[in-house]
Amino acid sequence: MHRTHPGTRTRAQAQIAVAATLLLAPLAACTSDGSPAPADAKEAESRGDDRPLTVTITPKGQQTTAGRPVEVTTTGGRLTSVTVEDGKGRTLAGTLTPDGRTWTSHRNTTPGSAYTVAVATRSKSGATGRTTTTLTTAPAEKINKVDWRPGTGTTVGIAQPVSLVFDHPVKNKAEVEKHLKITTSNDTQGSWGWMRDWSGRDRVDWRPRTYWKPGTEVTLNAELDGTDSGADGGWFVRDYTTRFTIGRHQVVKVDLDEHELTLLRNGRTVRRIPVSGGTPGGDKRSWRGTAVLMAKEGTINMNSETVGLGDAYDKMVEHSMRLTWSGMYAHAAPWNAHHFGHANRSSGCIGMSDADAAWFYEQVRPGDPFEITGKDTKGVVAPGNGFGDWNLSWEQWRDRSALRS
Q1: Do β-strands 77-86 and 369-373 pair in parallel, antiparallel, or remain unpaired?
Q2: Is residue 16 located within the same domain as residue 121?
């Protein structure tokens, strides 16, 4: 998972989104349609047409609570210009109501920031004025951060979700979800779904209704700067973004009863490989359902004590491909060669010969789905155990959105 990566803005850059100052055209001069001329000011005042112009700016003062937009309102006239600038000279974009009386920033104020608000006005009689004020927000007592997948510039398989894992609890799930935006090159239908990650932290994934279409370009804009996580979670003080592309249509089918792995590309069989899965009848069984290739980890040390299996093994393993956080991999397992294609006798992983593993390792990429079937397994891969999102129906998945009505 990533903390920073190419294309991600620094914390300072993400404090305030840069936008153009909103400028409005001046009102037209008085005409002969019955509007009062300046010489008729007393009569206009008696009719209420030239009430004293007032400007109200919220929030106001020093050390105010962050997480609110800046709002400027006026009575007795119109706003002709509003500029909200932070201490580093960057501006907040905003929108003015059609009547010219209220301007609201698009983004919330962020913790520990200072803002200068400059307002230009025109009264109903045509008089102009300017108001400038400053405000500051209190610093955050706790900051929430995000780990995310996949990384920017990557090409991933058709089952890869967008996944965000938070350092601290997220109680304001609906508010956070409002700031998460997925854009695709072909209007792919999908939804966010909340869960508990295998690490115990809060997590939210976005997956399509069905597997991605190859070639789809995907962008995540997590505009979280200035958003409150809720109790015990702290504030977000930066935005996050990632862009990636969906690769070729590739599915791995693993039949544990037949002890066979099949690589399918565009619906056609590329190769069948004899394998041996987890030993039946106990904790060494494999998981079933759809697991998603999380990472190609190469040569790694596998120690059974890390997955609760005592001292059953401790060895270096080649061509390791992670499928779950709980420790299920596909990998080379030459010590188990006499069981390939005949029996499940591994400690839960999907083992194959060195030659088959070397070839297979080069064919797959993170995000490829492994659709695993078998009678004697531990159960279905849970959403938070790697990327088990696909083991829920579309309706079940949508129900996990905090914004589902």
Answers
A1: unpaired
A2: yes
Nearest to 334 by CA among 360, 355, 306, 310: 355
Other beta carbons within 10 angstroms of residue 303's beta carbon come to: 14
What is the distance between the alpha carbons of residues 239 and 222, in angstroms, rounded to a whole number? 6
Residues in the chain: 405
Residue 269's DSSP bridge partners are 264
Given a cut of 90, whether residue 48 has pLDDT beyond it is: no
Asked, for residue 71, whether it belongs to a domain, the answer is yes
Whether 260 is covered by a domain: the verdict is yes
Distance between CA 54 and CA 10 in Å, rounded?
A: 39
Q: What is the pTM of this model?
A: 0.82
What is the CATH classification number for the domain harbouring 239?
2.60.40.3710
Can you list the alpha helix ranges (DSSP code H) found in 105-198? 173-178
Per-residue pLDDT tens over the stretch 157-191: 999 999 999 999 999 999 999 999 999 999 999 99
Kindly state the helix (H) or strand (E) to which residue 361 belongs, with its residue range: helix 354-363
